[in-house]
Design a protein that fits this description.
The chain is an alpha/beta fold. The protein has ten helices and nine strands. The structure holds zinc ion. Zinc ion binds at residues 134, 136-137, 139, 160, 162-163, 165.
Length: 253
């Protein structure tokens, strides 16, 4: 069913939520746009104007690493202060109420954690951009430390003081392998759901596309909340092509 208006979408979603025991939300960029974080992949988004740095380039070139960190801190000035939106808050309320064991997300903005969902219950398919790790020894580094090293090194991206490895934001770059552990946990959560809610994702990029169908085939009901149509709308139990905050805010308590 495609909801004809927001009121119908909210009413039907509330019924589905009330009838469910295990709700697993799956989120994409659309949930964070009201927080001021643009959808990088959308038409007109940053990545259609500026080519992303491929993982192999990051590994091969000091210049690419320097540029990658320059971009990261330019972004920090624009979106560093972003706060969770209504969608994040609503999902955190379902989580606190024991209705949802955790969230699977394509986002790297840390806003689910900031809304109160415990970090171990946020499965990040594309990693997290709010801290960095050493690619060799996996040591964690905070962004202010990286920033300070960049400043004292004339903009040269720092190496790991422990092992000399490259230090990169904890995100999954283009050309970098998907994290096995996150994929495994995402699958586990998806299969535990009796209600799977895909929010703000166009569901075209692998592996995102696989989860709604996996949930549906496993017997869960499927809800899709996204501005634009997706190729799974036909199999969904409810489709809301409305503002995410407007559809979800009734769950904020
Ligand atoms: Zn290291």
């Amino acid at each position: 069913m495609i909801a004809p208006d927001v009121t119908t979408a909210v009413r039907r979603l509330r019924e589905l939520v009330d009838e469910s025991r295990v709700i697993v939300p799956f989120t994409g960029a659309g949930i964070s746009t009201e927080c001021g974080i643009p959808d990088f992949r959308s038409p007109g988004g940053i990545w259609t104007k500026m080519r992303p740095i491929d993982f192999s380039d990051f590994l091969a070139s000091q210049e690419a690493r320097d540029e990658s960190w320059r971009r990261r801190f330019a972004m920090e000035e624009q979106f560093g202060g972003a706060k969770p939106g209504r969608g994040h808050q609503a999902l955190a309320c379902l989580y606190r109420a024991g209705k949802s064991p955790g969230v699977v997300t394509q986002n790297i903005d840390n806003l689910h954690q900031a809304s109160g969902i415990s970090p171990e219950h946020v499965v990040e398919l594309h990693g997290n951009t709010t801290y960095a790790t050493c690619l060799d020894c996996a040591a964690r580094y905070e962004l202010p430390w990286v920033k300070q090293r960049l400043a004292s090194g004339n903009g040269r991206a720092p190496s790991c003081p422990d092992c000399g490895g490259h230090i990169k934001t904890a995100t999954v770059s283009f050309g970098q392998a998907m994290p096995d552990e996150a994929m495994r946990r995402a699958e586990q959560l998806t299969l535990s759901a009796d209600l799977f809610i895909a929010i703000g994702s166009s569901l075209v990029v692998w592996p995102a596309a696989g989860f709604p169908l996996m949930a549906k085939r496993n017997g869960a009901r499927l809800v899709i909340i996204n501005r634009d149509p997706t190729e799974f709308d036909d199999v969904a139990d409810l489709v809301a092509r409305h503002d995410i905050g407007a559809v979800l805010e009734c769950f904020i308590v």
